[in-house]
Amino acid sequence: MFSCWLSRLCRGLSTPTGRVTHLIQGSLSRRLMLSSQRIPELSSFVARTNTCGELRSSHLGQEVTLCGWIQYRRQNIFLVLRDFHGLVQVVIPQDESAASVKKILCEAPMESVVQVSGTVISRPPGQENPKMPTGEIEIKVKSAQLLNTCKKLPFEIKDFVKKTEALRLQYRYLDLRSFQMQYNLRLRSRMVMKMREYLCNLHGFVDIETPTLFKRTPGGAKEFVIPSREPGKFYCLPQSPQQFKQLLMVGGLDRYFQVARCYRDEGSRPDRQPEFTQIDIEMSFVDQIGIRSLIEGLLQYSWPSDKDPVVVPFPSMTFAEALASYGTDKPDTRFGMKIVDISDVFRNTKVGFLQDALSKPQGTVKAICISEGAKYLKRKDIESLRKLAADHFNQEVLPVFPKANRNWNSPVAKSIMEEQRSELIRLMEIQEDGVVLLTAGEHRKACSVLGKLRLECADLLEARGLVLRDPALFSFLWVVDFPLFLPKEENPGELESAHHPFTAPHPSDIHLLHTEPKQVRSQHYDLVLNGNEIGGGSIRIHDAELQRYILATLLKEDVKLLSHLLQALDFGAPPHGGIALGLDRLICLVTGAPSIRDVIAFPKSFRGHDLMSNAPDSLPPEELKPYHIQVSWPADSEAEKSSLNQPYHPES
Amino acid sequence: MFSCWLSRLCRGLSTPTGRVTHLIQGSLSRRLMLSSQRIPELSSFVARTNTCGELRSSHLGQEVTLCGWIQYRRQNIFLVLRDFHGLVQVVIPQDESAASVKKILCEAPMESVVQVSGTVISRPPGQENPKMPTGEIEIKVKSAQLLNTCKKLPFEIKDFVKKTEALRLQYRYLDLRSFQMQYNLRLRSRMVMKMREYLCNLHGFVDIETPTLFKRTPGGAKEFVIPSREPGKFYCLPQSPQQFKQLLMVGGLDRYFQVARCYRDEGSRPDRQPEFTQIDIEMSFVDQIGIRSLIEGLLQYSWPSDKDPVVVPFPSMTFAEALASYGTDKPDTRFGMKIVDISDVFRNTKVGFLQDALSKPQGTVKAICISEGAKYLKRKDIESLRKLAADHFNQEVLPVFPKANRNWNSPVAKSIMEEQRSELIRLMEIQEDGVVLLTAGEHRKACSVLGKLRLECADLLEARGLVLRDPALFSFLWVVDFPLFLPKEENPGELESAHHPFTAPHPSDIHLLHTEPKQVRSQHYDLVLNGNEIGGGSIRIHDAELQRYILATLLKEDVKLLSHLLQALDFGAPPHGGIALGLDRLICLVTGAPSIRDVIAFPKSFRGHDLMSNAPDSLPPEELKPYHIQVSWPADSEAEKSSLNQPYHPES
């Protein structure tokens, strides 16, 4: 439906893109063929008989009533009416007897809302518009009604009119009329509905709502707090329904899912929202492979039909492999440029920083090869990559041109002997114009910097016109075998959970739990799409003793905060596992939207503000009284305080 | 699926009820006949091959693997295994070679979780259990695995074991294993899924998520507040997505719905939850009839197939009629006992309080007739009804027995002359043993007290064994033509919205808006089921000027708080309307559950507490710091404060 609208608006409006139109038409017919599903009735229960976008030659002679917005008007003769479904041309009657209809249709400002009734007629020969799905017909109007007028708009509802994001967010209700927002929100709705069909109707999952007024979880520093009417007592908004979903398994619900609203207070981080949505899933008696198959089926089933179909099973990679080859736990596998360990090539090097690195026990030399780099990258590009490595990772990076005739004035590069050069070419399969970026140091650090440079290089090459990452390609990847624990950042002698404390250890590593916990891998798995983490989950601990040992002995958490969960595990908890998919991010990638704010109807700004309604807002102190709280004003905000204390003028 | 499980558990366990079994069997076959929908695969992706509840004679000879909880064990020979889907009998092997299997199955405590593999075999002749859906077969076990043990439970997982609600809520994860909770939650999930199919797939609605971190709405005194990281700035949790759904219509989304989480802080009110769920709907270009047809179709489509089908259209009644005949805006129309105005009968009465009432300009005499009341009600019942009227309404109520030979020693009753008596019999169609309860006063007050007594009488009669309200009957009713405004409780000279300020006035009454606003009826409608309000909505104001006039001039609200909405109406807002259904209450009525807490997985207690996890809970002051708030301790809670200030020991 939306895609139909998309193609129509695309073709009828100002930004016709052959590619989109083509895709959409293909998708529509494919959907009609593949699925026997009833097409939704879009005009049931309302004043109109049809949508603006659906009329064709097959409707000729029909009496129709349409409702929509005035998109534009030509010489008081034609008017183009728009609704969510498309555009249609309306002929303004010119004869005396229809003067009142003419007056309404000619005087209403653009974006006014009108209802028109009339007959579907053919356009005169030669006046058909093949770019417009309704371009063969027009409406001969008999009556018209002005439903609402429109004042002067802050921006035009035309896709080619560029506006700042702040303006779009302030007038979100106008921005929502745009082609792209309608497409994104309708695709989201449709895709979630298909996910529900797959889970509920095909696999017997139970959709269960869990509370969002909960209590602080251990380590829940990013949870919003909500004062209750009991002095000093607070609810918290949970970051996920993790505890509840596990308790549902203990409760024998067997297969749970929820499209769950979650909350995370991270202050202002780009492309994060204080509230977000995840597809939350938990199953009893399942293993990793079971969850992975479920999710592969889920994405395949719900994937929009105007995109290339999803191929299953998804490849998988261990965390160790991801780090070694891509320098990250979320590799973008749409392109190569993998990290290669070339330590052996440089065992006898004279290059100082390589020598230094290799003299240390954990020292390595690593490299990536940029194919055609010498052709497409400029010297300043290479320099900016080196600077990035130096500034953000404190790592030296050396560019080498093994087969190119260029050799920038790098004294170090000259120290690479001919023998090393040919070994490098062999090992890394370097072609003409390949550029090698080389670094040295501890494995993890060397990989991280090259992982970052790999992505930067891809951006640079694509800015020069190369296509490394096909925008139509969706490259899914499972990353598995993560470590169960990491050293605490603030105190590396202590351990913290790499993901969360309910993650089960890898069965092969259980024996290490008491001796070398840092070596224990977990049964956590991440789902990565085009280099973005779009989901993660694990098989959980169902043994109360193991859970107590990990929480109390290894993580040194206060188990009292989790006593209900520990107790639940004592009372016949089944083995279970689950996953959560980040819906906003997933839809963002599917639609190709530049930001998750483009797939959310009313998103918050970077700083967590609703620019339309001005939330968060100040409250008069008496409204805080029932909650037994008062504001602790920072010392430097006295001025602000006095202005904010004015009750009922929160916008001043 | 759940109903299948229901019947099995019902029949196999301790509370066999012929009625339920019969209904379920009927419903299952009806569903299989009516719907071509694929039956969910309940054992996909997991260790088992089948659920415990599904095995039949048709599975004989199959090798199966089952996972479940040990429900009971007989003489170390049989074991009954339970999962969400039902029960199955497992034969514990007795031969030496299977000693380890026998040991596992005989030693595991009740409610332990086991996995067994074996063959489906016939039960020996004469040992079939016709009350158990799997009663023809049993499992000859070859291998068994103890997946988890169970410690001593706080209560048995048997439906006949009575437990207090507090205990059930504290161990909710155990309570969820009960037949009734599984049935309720699965019915809820299924019904919501059908609603989504109806809205999305059949009628093109778009499922859109709206924010829950919003700002205070005017008059939003029941909204929870959430401090942000900006000093003195707060988000609020909205009571409904009202503003957002209207803004989506302005945004041209045309048809919106959401299964929306809403929040209301009412302290402790019985059968309310601080967070609740509504089916939230909004449409453009729609009128009242359109919304009503949509909802009738929605309920008909989603109604569980094991209940009597929903008959549409639903009857409707004006607010005035509901008040006059039932004394309430949510009449229970499953039974009669309507209120009758009998003022004319008593124009010449000598009874003092009737005389008094009728001498006033608005005075009326009203009555209800309790059929068979003289037979079923005792004198103390009548007295308790009179006391209720006196205590709660300050109203005198007079019992009259027009055709009964009883006449309690009421001097007033004797003053009712024979002529009035026969007129009463005629007017109210009083039969033998009918009892009339009579009151006098201003219309609204007289109706209210009789409306309350009507429901009390029904309870009393049903406690005596009469059936007035068939529990299988679902009596839907639309109540329409509400007043748009009510006098403010604290200041009756001023007006407040009867529902909310966005409700459109009734088209016939627009002319009264400037002259007699109190007389204006609204385009609000309520949906009532068996005397409970389960939904409400309205056609909204789409005219900015009208909205400004009502907000600023009539309601004297600060329009600044709603400037974004008013501005949106200025920019081509389409006519629109919508409704919200209270999902918790609806599911509660459909399942016949005693409380909405029985249809919510993890409800809060009366006082808004999560008895399982102990939320809300105290927080150490340093966790409040980022939010620039501190607790204002009431003077008498110093002791509490000192205990609560202990960080990380919130349960102490």
TrEMBL record, chains A, B:
Lineage top rank: taxon: Eukaryota
UniProt KW keywords: Aminoacyl-tRNA synthetase, ATP-binding, Ligase, Membrane, Mitochondrion, Nucleotide-binding, Phosphoprotein, Protein biosynthesis, Transit peptide
Biological-process GO terms, alphabetical: aspartyl-tRNA aminoacylation
The reaction(s) this protein catalyses: tRNA(Asp) + L-aspartate + ATP = L-aspartyl-tRNA(Asp) + AMP + diphosphate
Record EC number: 6.1.1.12
PANTHER family: ASPARTATE--TRNA LIGASE, MITOCHONDRIAL, ASPARTYL/LYSYL-TRNA SYNTHETASE
Purpose of the protein: Catalyzes the attachment of aspartate to tRNA(Asp) in a two-step reaction: aspartate is first activated by ATP to form Asp-AMP and then transferred to the acceptor end of tRNA(Asp).
Protein name per Swiss-Prot or TrEMBL: Aspartate--tRNA ligase, mitochondrial
Provenance organism: Acinonyx jubatus (Cheetah)
